Amino acid sequence: MTRFLVAAVAILLPSAAAAQSTASVLAASDIWSEHPFQRPVELDGREWLVLVVAGGQSRVERVVPRWTGSVFFEDSVFQLEVTPALPPESMQLLVAGVPGVRPGPATTVVEYEASLWSDERRLTMTLGATAYQLELRASNPDFCDATVTLSDGRASQTLYVPQGQPFDCDEPHFSVQWAGDLDGDGRLDLVTTFSPKYSWYPRRLYLSSAARPGELVALVATTELAAA
Question: Among 80, 77, 84, which Cα is nearest to 93's?
Fold first, then answer.
């Protein structure tokens, strides 16, 4: 899993600009670091919100983000900055086009990336009086048959199942970039990266307020990233 540790260095897949949904999410590692990009995530013409976590408090604020840096043909390096200025380490999420997220207080229970793997297949997250559990299940040692399920002690929902052919799987990795209450309904929301390939980092934002009957969360924003 050594290659998984370089997730902060990312490029947008060449075809991803056309494939991205109207709602997008960037995690802390996408925000904090300088990135070599062939084509950065499009920021202009959209209203962006940032989740700021500082001093034990979480809050959603409006910002105007922009890419700065040196531009070269193949070695362009971009740094994300926001107005009004914020310390990079305080910014946990950047979202656009998500109706259920608005400026105001939020709650964070997982601030730093938490990985699920052979020795740590369960992640317990407590929000209010509810203990949620995210569980990785697999029978093959390569984890190519892995599934990821979220439960709250009453209901259970599968968030990831393998797709494609077995040869599409190459060092899969599973992690939570952030968890807490982003939409203000008192229930758990998640930003995850569940991927069948070591170099692919599909960011996914799940909100509880968008869940249908019988669900705990619903997918509301996606951004596709690939390791450089």
Answer: 80
Taking Cα atoms as reference points, which of 46, 109, 79, 98 lies closest to residue 221? 98
Is the Cβ–Cβ distance between 202 and 159 less than 8 Å? no
Judged against a pLDDT cut of 60, whether residue 85 lies above it is answered with yes
User: 168: helix, coil or strand?
Assistant: helix
Of residues 57 and 17, more confidently modeled: 57
Q: What does the buried/exposed string (b/e) look like for 217-228 if buried means 16 or more CB atoms within 10 Å of the residue's CB?
A: bebbbbbbbbbe
Confidence of residue 161 (pLDDT cuts 50, 70, 90): very high
- The rounded distance, in Å, linking the Cα atoms of 180 and 186 is 9
**DSSP, residue by residue, 46-106:** S-EEEEEEETTEEEEEEEEEEEEEE--SS--EEEEEEES---GGGEEEEEES-TT--SEEE
Report the DSSP pairing between strands 77-83 and 57-70.
Answer: antiparallel
Query: Is the CB of residue 35 less than 8 Å from the CB of residue 78?
Result: yes
CA distance 155 to 214: 7
Query: Does the predicted model carry a pTM greater than 0.85?
Result: yes
Question: Residue 21's Cα: distance from chain center in Å?
Answer: 14
> What letter would DSSP give residue 6?
G
Domains of the chain by residue range: 22-227
